[in-house]
Fold these 2 entries.
Entry 1:
Amino acid sequence: MKKRVKPGWVTTRRVVQYLALALFISLFIAARQNRWPGEVVNIPMRLDPLLGLASALAARTFVAGSVLALITLLLTLVFGRAWCGWLCPLGTVLDLFPFKQARGKRPSPPETWRKVKYLLLLLILSAALFGNMTLLFLDPLAILHRTLSTAIWPALDQIVTASETFLYRIPGFGAPISWLDSKLRPVFLPTEPVFYRDTILFGAFFVGLLALNVLAPRFWCRYLCPLGGLLGLLSRAALFRRAVTEPCQGCKLCSAGCPTGTIDPSKNYASDPAECTLCMECLENCPRSMVQFTPGFSLAEGQPYDPQRREALLTLGAAIGGIALLRSNLLAKRESPFLLRPPGSRENNTDIVAFTRCSRCNLCVRACPTGAIQPAGFEAGLEGFATPVLAPRLGYCNYSCNACGQICPTQAIPALSLEEKRQQVIGKAYINESRCLAWSDHQPCIVCEEMCPLPQKAIQLEVKEVWGPDGIPIELQLPHVLREICIGCGICEYKCPVSGEAAIRVYIPPLEVPF
Amino acid sequence: MTKISRREFLRLAALTMGGVTLNHLLAGCSPQKSTPELTTDHPLPTAAGAAPESAATTQAANSTANVPAGVPDLVVARNGDPESMVRRAIAALGGMERFVHPGARVIVKPNICVDSHSYEYAATTNPWVVGALVKMALEARARSVRVMDYPFGGTAESAYANSGIQEQVQAAGGEMVTMTGFKYISTEIPAGSALKKTDVYDEILTADVLIDAPVAKHHSMARLTLGMKNLMGVIRNRSALHRNLGQSIADLNSLIRPQLTVIDAVRILMANGPTGGNLNDVKQLDTIVASPDVVAADSYAASFFGLQPADLAYIQAGSAMGLGRSDLSNLKIEELSL
C-alpha cells in the first residue's frame, strides 16, 4: 500500500466550511439594528445567484448589489459546485448532522429524484418571469436566516435567560453572571426577548430538513436545493473535473464514501460534475491516489435524471397554473386590513412590490430590533409565505430605526433615510372604544398617548366628565387618534396594557387613503 | 421497579428541558410578553416601615448624619454651564462627600426614556449634567459609578448613544449599564397602598448610593416628570401604575430612596412630553435643582411650569407619606447665580 501523502484536502475543506459558517453567523448577529452596515451584512445574500436571477426576472430590474453573484457563478464555472461543498452554510450544518447510525445500510433513494432540484429551479425561474417569487423561500441561505432568526436565536435566548435568572439568585453567582451577561448582551442576544409567532412552523421545517439526512447524506443538496440545481447546471461546463486514472483496482472505497453518492462503480467510477461538491473525500479515500481533479474543457455528458423537454414544459405550465390559482384566492380580492408591511414596501396602497421584489431572505426579520417584522405564515396568502409583515402587538417600528430598508438586498423595502422613514405611513391607529380602559372602563390610562413618538403627538387626550365606577362624575382623559398625522408605527398597539388584543390597533384605513 | 439507565435518564432530562423551552416559545406566540417569574421576595433593609415617619429616616440617616450646620435643604443654581451648575449646587449642599463615601457603589439614574432625539429636545437628561455627577462621585472616591435607564422606545443601546449620555459618562470614567431582564426581583413595598409589590431592578436595591437625575418635562397624566416619577424607570411593569399614578409613584418612592436628586432644568420640555421631538416645546432655563429630598426638589421644579406642589398628585402623596417636604416656604433654599 502506498502511504498517503496528500496534504489533507478534507481537513482544509472542513476548516473553510467552518470559517464560512462562522462568518455567516457573525454577519447574522451583526445584522441586528445595523450593528454593521446593511450592505456588508447582506453580502451572503448578494452572492446568491438564485436570488439575483429570480429577483431580476420578477422585478424586471437589475439590482446593482447582485453583481456579487457573478463571483459565485465564476467560481462554479471554474470549480463546479464547490460553493455547495466548501461555502454554503446550510450545507455545512447538514454535514454536522450526518445521522449515519440511523441511516444504517439503507440504500439511497432512486437516482431520478435528483431531477427534483432542477424542476424546482425551473419552477422558481418561470414563476419569477411572471412576477412571482413565492418559492424563493426554499433558497438555502434564506432557510438558514429564517430559522436562525425565528427559532434558534429566540430559543437560545430563552435558555440563557432562564439559566441566568436561576443562577443569579444563588449567593456568590450574582457578580459572575452579571459580568457574563454584560458580555452577551446586547451584541449576541437581545436585552429584551423577541418573539416570533411562527417559531414552531419554521423550526419544524428546519428539523425536517435535517431529518432527511437519514434517507441519504445531504439529501437536501442532492435532490432538492434549487440553488444547487442552478450551480449544478453551470458545473457541467466547469473547468476542473474529477477524473479517475488507471490503474483503478475497483475497491469501491470512493463510491461508498461519496457524500453525494454520485460516483458510479458501473461507469468506471465516473461522477456527474453537476452533483460533485468537490468535497475531496474520494481523493483521500483512494488507497492508490488515482483520483485527480484536473482542468479540461468539455461539457459533461447527460444523465438519466436530467429533466426532459416534456418535463420542462410541464413545469412551466405548472408555474403558470400555480400563479393563476394563488392569484384567485381571497386575499387577492379583499386584502386583510391588518396585513402591514415594513415601512415603504407598499406602493400606491398595493402590496405588489413586496411580492415581486421580496426574496424571502428574512434579513429584515433579523435586522428589526423589536421583533416587529415577522416572516408571514399564511396571513399573506400562500403566495406571500415568509414575506415580511409587521406585527405591532409583538414589536413596534421604532421611530429611530431604519435598519430593514438598509439591509434588504433586493430593495423590496426601500433604503430610506431616517427622516424619510419617519414620514412613511405603515398604517393608521384605531381605538377600539369597547376595549379601551379609558373609553369603556373609565379608568385613567394614557399609555398610547405617552408612547406616541411623533413630535406633535398623533394621539391627543380629550378631557371629559364621565361617570366614575361608583356613579360619581370624574374628569377623565380620553385618547383620540389624529389620523392625518399618524404613521402607524404601532408602539401604541404594542404598549397598550389591556390583555390579549390591544385596544388600539394599526391597520390599513377602511377607505382608500393615498399613501 | 425497572431501573433507568443513564442514557435513558439523560434522554428524559433533555426531553423535559426541551419541553420547558418549547413552552417558553409557545408562550411567545401570544402577544403578551412574559417576564421571568421571580420567586424570591426580597424585603429590603432600605424599605420604609409601615409608619410614614420612618419612611424618610433611612435616607436621613445616610445623608444628614454628618451634615454641617447651616447647609440648605435645597439649592438652585442658575445661568451657568451644566457642569458648573451641578458642581456649585452640590458644593452648597455640603459636597458630594456628604452623599458618597469612599468605596461606595454609586448608581446615577438619568431619564433616557426614548432613543428618538438628542438632548436638545429635552426628553432625556442633559449629558453634561450626568457626566458631572459621575465625575464628582468618582472624585469622592466612589468604587464604581454606573449609569442606567430602561427606555420604553428603542433599545438601551441606541438610546444611550443618541441621547449623548453614553459619551459623557464614559469620558467621565463611569459605566453605562444595560438593565437586563433577569435582574428584576419581585419586591414588597411595605408602606405602599396603591402599589404593594413590583419587580425592581436588583442593582438599584443593592447600590450604596442612588442619585436621581431627571430632566424636568411635561407628562399628560402626571402633568410633570421630575425626580419622583423618574424612579419608575427602575421597575418593569410600569403600566400597572397608571390606575392610581400619584399614589403609586409615592409608594415606589417609599421603597427606592435616592440619597441625592439633581433635576436638570437646563432645557425643559413644556408640552408633548415625555417623548418630545419639537424644539418649539423646549424652553432653555439653564437651571439645576439639587436636594437630598426628592419631594422638595420636585416641589421647587414644578414652579418652572407655573404649577404649585399641590398640583402634582405624587408630590401630595409623597409628602403625606412623609417621604419629604413640599412646604417650600418653610425650607431653607439657597439660590445661586453663576
Entry 2:
Amino acid sequence: MASITLQDLNTKAEIRKKTAKPLLWIGIVSIVMFFSGWTSAVIVSKGGNGNWLNIELPFAFSLSTIIIVLSSLLFHYGLISIKKDNKKMLKLAVSLTLVLGLLFVVSQFYGWKELYSNGIVATGSSSTNASSFIYLITVFHVLHLLAGIISLIVVSVKSYKEKYNSTNFLGVEVSIIYWHFLGALWIYLFLFLKYIA
Amino acid sequence: MSTHHHHDQDFLFKYVFSQDHKMISKQFLITGFIMGFIGLIMSTLFRLQLGWPGESFWIIDKLLGSWAENGVMAPDKYLALVTMHGTIMVFFLLTAGLSGTFSNLLIPLQIGARDMASGFLNMLSFWFFFLSSVIMLISLGVEGGAASAGWTIYPPLSALPQAIPGSGLGMTLWLVAMALFIVGSLLGSLNYIVTILNLRTKGMSMTRLPLTIWAFLLTAIIGVVSFPVLLSAALLLIFDRGFGTSFYLSDIYIGGQVLEHNGGSPILFEHLFWFLGHPEVYIVLLPALGITSEIISTMTRKPIFGYRAMIGSMVAIAFLSTIVWGHHMFVTGMNPFLGAVFTFTTLLIAIPSAVKVFNYLTTLWKGNIKFSPATLFSIGLVSTFISGGLTGLILGDSALDINVHDTYFVVGHFHIVMGLSAIFGMFAGVYHWFPKLFGRMMNNKIGQLHFWITIVCAYGIFFPMHFLGLAGVPRRYYTNSEFPLFDNLLDINVLISTFAIIIAFGQLLFLYNFVFSALRGPKAPQNPWDSNSLEWTAPVEHIHGNWYGDIPEVYRWPYDYSKVDENGEYIGGKDFIPQTTPLYDNETDEAH
C-alpha cells in the first residue's frame, strides 16, 4: 500500500500538469456561453422593442479597453521572461499587471458613475432594458475579472517567493490564459455594447 | 495526533468530503435516488387528485397537511407539486443523479485513470448539488409553498412575486437552488471532459473507448455549452423579481394596478430557457444510451453493431440538440418560416436516433442474451426510445404540434422518450454496475419482477395520455371536471392513476433490493458479467487509485465478444476477450 502513496504524489503532479490548462479552457467555454446568452438576449430584446434606447458608452469604458490591452501585453512579457529564467522581470511584469487590473476595475466604476450621472440607471421605473443590460453585462464581467485578480495576486506572491523558473511556470500560464481571455471578452462586450446594443 | 482523532478525520474525508470518484459516485446516486423517490411520491399524490378529483384521501391528508384540507389537495399546491415533480425528476434525479453517478464511477475506471482530473472540483460538484437539493426541499416548506410555475418557470408567473402564492419565496429558493445546481453541474462536466481527453491509459485511443464514455463526454460537452445559458436566463429572472428590471416584463397589471415594468418580453425567457431546455433532454438521455449500449453488447455476448455509427449518431444528436429549441415555442407567435426551420432541424434528429435504434436491434438480433435485470431495462429503453421517439415526429412538426401543444400528448411523449428512457438506463446501470459500486450482487429475481411491473405500469400510465392529448385535455390543470367536453375521458384518468399507484409500490421492490443487497448481498466476483471493459480488472474492494501497481494497458476495443477464428473456435478459448489482453497471433484488431 505504501507504494500507492508514493505513486499518488507523482501522479497528482502529473495529472495537474496534464489537466490544468484543459480545465481552464473548458471553463472559459462555459463563461463564453454565459455571456453569449446575455448578448443574444440583448439582440432579441432589441428586435422586439420599438423604443430601444441607444446609449452612448462612457469615455471611461474606452479607457478600460486600453488598460486591459496594456495589462495583457505586460503579462505576456512576464511569461516570455520567465521562460528565459528572468525572475526579476516576471515579478515586475506581474505586479504591474495587477496594478493595471485594479485600475481597470476603477475605470469601470468611473464608467458606471458617468452613466448614472447621465440618468442611465440599472433598475427602477426610469430604467430601460438597454440601460439594465449595460450595467448587468459590465458588472458581471468585472465579477469574472475579480477571479483573474485573485489569480494575479497568487502569481505575484509566488513569483516574489521565486517559485517559478524556466521549467516550472504552469501557474503563470494558467493565469495568463484566463487574463487574456478576460481582455478578449471585454473587447467583445465593449464593441457589442457600442455598435450593436 | 491521537489514533482516535486520526480515525475521525479518516471518516470525514472518506465518506463525507471525499475526493475519490467512487465515493462521490455513490454520494450522487444516493442523493439522486432520495430526490427521485420524493419526486415519485409527489406524482403519485397528484395522480390521486387527477384520477379522483376532489375526493378526500387519508394519505394526502397525512402527507400534505395544510396543503390539503380534509385530504383534498388545494389547487395551488397541485401546481407546486407538478412543478417540483418536474424539477426534481429532470434535474436532480436524471441529470445529477444519472450523470453524476455513472460519469464519476465509470470514467476513471473505464479509461484507466487513477481518479478524475481534479478530485477537489469533483467534490465541490457534489456538494453544490447536495446544497441545491437541500434548498429545493426546504422550498417545499416556506410560506406560499414551493415554486408553482411549472418546471419551465415561464414569466410572468415566475417573475412577479405577487402573482400566485408559489411565486413568492418558493420561487426565489427555486432559483437559488438551480443556480447552485448549475455551478455543480458545470464543475462536474469540466472534470469529465478533461479526464476523458487527457487521462486515458496507454492504448486507450478514442476509438477504443466504451460507448458509455463517449456518451458521458458528449453529455458533459452539451452541459458546458447549455447550462451557462440557463444561468444567464435565471439571473435575468432574479433581477426582474427583486431588483426592478424588466427583461421579461412589459405592461403588466396585477389586481388592476399597473406595474412599473416596461419594455421586456417573456418570449425572451423562453428562448434562453429552451436553449438549455432542449439540450437538457439529451443531457438526460445520452448517458442512458451509452449505458444501455454497453450492457446490451455485454449481455448479448456480441460486439456492438456499428460502433462508429453509434458514436457518430451521438455526436450528431449532441450537435443538433443545440439548434432545435424553437420547437418548444411554435405557438408563441413565431414567424412561420422560422418555425419551418426549427421543424427541419428537429426532424433531422430522427436520422441519428433511427441509426441508434437499428444498431440496438441488430446487436440484440441472434444474440446469446442473458436476461439480467440490466438487460431487461436496456431493452425497455430501446422500446421507449422508439415509442416516445415516434410521437416526437408529430410534436417536432410545427403544423401538427400546434394542435396538441400543451396537452397530455406532450406529457405522454416526453415522459416516455426522456423520462422512461433515462430512468430505465439508470436502473440498468445500477443493476449492471452494482457489483462495482458496492462490491455485492443484487437479487436477480426481484430485479426482473421490478422490471416487469415498471414497464407494464409505465406504458399503462403514459400511453393513454396520448389519447387524452388528442382529445384536447390540457396539461397542468388541477381538474378537468369543469369541462363537460372531457367528462367521458375521466375513466382514462382513473386507469392512469391506478397504474401510477402500482408503479410507485413496485419501486419499493427496487428500494428493498438495493438496500438489502448493498448491506447483505452476496459478495461480487471480479468480473460478474464476463465483460471486456477495464473497470472489471480493478479490485472489487474500492482502493484509492483504482489499481494496485501499474494501470493496465489496453490492446483492443471493448467489444470483442464471441470472437471466433477461421475454424469457428473462440479466440482465447472464451466468448470474451478483455481489453487488457494483447492481440493473439494472426488476430486482427477489431477497433473499427
